[in-house]
Specification:
The chain has 366 residues and is α/β, with parallel strands linked by helices. Helices cover 29% and strands 16% of the residues.
């Protein structure tokens, strides 16, 4: 049996990757302008990391209603499309590939991002979390439940965002259906207590995801579309794992198999301290979903080069996404390949804006 290498090419749908090292989506809060449009500074940041087999953009808001953090970029306006074109051109000029992660925060937001109005959600349930603002962390409030008409409009927002992403020069898109944001909220009984066709049964709770997926693949070839899941997110962003969690996500993946999608992006569990004896908990996701998913799997969460190599060689996943290591190591692929030491990141600069901790991490060899 062939043992694949981390540095070996791989095909994800219609995307050819020269290596299996993926840059994970990383919220950096650097679109500090009235249009929430990507900037020339952001183009430089992504270009520095273009040697990744695939760059997944930071989570990108599909509509003004989807905002939940300061200075995060959108993909609903012409100014935003033009800003992202700077980024994709810069990455392609370095020989890279980049896809846009499509995002709606749902109830993980605050009135200050919506002109004083309440954020929207599947149901009017406060996640009881604290959200980042320019003035520090602030507690969430009880959101407003979306109407059926608003759900349809939000689905259309995802479709428009997918279309805009291709106009902006992206090589594909990833649907952000994880980490407690709007799609994940619809999937989770603790956030979705609707009594219409979007709540209750597994099929109903998955309905919004598949409506979004249908809207996206109507604009982007399915072989250029991936989606991200974090089934084991527990006691974070207002979500909990229970006996319904795994059956829900198994259903989602089995049905998604029929679309011919490019990848399934799985975040491995990272809250073990909360999960001793928890019903429905599994410690490793890629090995669990490998026999279920017919599409390639991208694994994410706490990997180093050694662990990533092992999982690729064992066939547990097809590529591995790295987040914080790509923040502090723009040349991460080259460092891994040469066996060089990786640089540490400065967490204080993750969301502060500006070039410090963004453009100033040097490569190992200049």
């Amino acid at each position: 049996m062939h043992r694949a290498s981390l540095f070996e090419p791989v095909q994800l749908g219609q995307l050819y990757l020269p290596n299996r090292i993926v840059m994970a989506p990383l919220t950096r809060c650097r679109a500090g302008n009235a249009e929430y449009a990507p900037t020339a500074m952001m183009a430089r940041y992504y270009a520095q990391r273009a040697s990744a087999g695939l760059v997944i953009s930071e989570a990108t808001i599909v509509s003004a209603q989807g905002r939940g953090y300061p200075d995060t970029p959108g993909i609903w306006s012409q100014a935003q499309v033009d800003g992202w074109r700077q980024v994709t051109d810069a990455v392609h000029a370095r020989g890279g590939r980049i896809v846009c992660q499509l995002w709606h925060c749902g109830r993980l937001s605050l009135p200050e991002f919506h002109g004083g109005a309440a954020p929207v959600a599947p149901s009017a349930i406060d996640p009881q979390w604290k959200m980042l603002t320019a003035q520090g962390l602030k507690p969430t409030i009880t959101p407003r439940a979306l109407t059926r008409e608003e759900i349809a409009a939000t689905v259309a927002d995802f479709g428009r965002a997918a279309r805009n992403a291709m106009v902006a020069g992206f090589d594909g898109v990833e649907i952000h259906s994880s980490n407690g944001y709007l799609i994940h909220q619809f999937l989770s009984p603790c956030a979705n207590q609707r009594e219409d066709e979007y709540g209750g049964s597994t099929d109903n709770r998955a309905r919004f995801f598949f409506e979004v997926l249908d809207a996206v693949v109507s604009e982007v070839p399915a072989g250029r579309v991936g989606f991200r899941l974090n089934p084991m997110m527990h006691r974070m962003h207002g979500l909990t794992v229970d006996e319904q969690t795994l059956p829900t996500f198994e259903h989602l993946v089995r049905r998604a198999n029929g679309y011919g999608l490019a990848w399934l992006h799985l975040t491995e569990p990272y809250q073990a301290r909360h999960t001793e004896g928890l019903a429905g908990w599994i410690p490793e996701l890629a090995p669990y979903f490998r026999p279920i998913a017919t599409m390639p799997i991208v694994s994410n969460g706490g990997f180093d080069c050694e662990k990533a190599t092992l999982w690729i060689e064992r066939g547990l996943c097809d590529a591995v996404a790295f987040g914080r290591l790509f923040i502090s190591n723009p040349d991460l692929v080259e460092r891994f390949r040469a066996g060089r030491e990786v640089a540490a990141w400065d967490a204080d600069t993750f969301y502060q804006g500006g070039e410090r901790g963004y453009l100033d991490y040097p490569p190992a060899v200049v």
